[in-house]
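BUG: 3D viewer hangs when loading the predicted structure for this chain

Environment: internal workstation, default settings.
Expected: structure renders.
Actual: progress bar stalls at 90%.

Input used:
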Amino acid sequence: MKHQNLQQPDGLGFSKCGKWLATANHGGGSVTIFRRLASSRPFYGPEPAATIKDVDFRYPHSVAFTPAGHLMVTNAGANYLNIYRITDRWFAKKPLVEPVMKLIVNDESVFLTVNAKNKMEGGPKGLAIHGKELAVCSPEFGIMIYRYREH
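Structure tokens produced before the viewer hung:
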């Protein structure tokens, strides 16, 4: 799949239900969300269902959906990850995308030391979700595992 919104895609993830495929666009400073076209076949797109262009994005790196459908996005070059609620709306072509929170993941002084050497290397990178556990990796701290609650 190719689309002009996919600018240096760096990470991607399926929602648990399989309806959404999200891509982190490192070069475009955005996240693109595609909708599954047919429930029995793995086809998405060709046009994005939504594109998130958050002013807080630096270099979106990794995306992951929680079991309840929240989308988490890491940003290389930033000391946080962003969390969004994706809500499909009846009779609407595009889902509602709402920011839920921004989560600081490391000590700011440690982040600044790494990020000063390369603006695209500091901050959280990879994400993995299993049940209510979130694993985040970063050059500053290696791997951290968090437990979380969804509302």
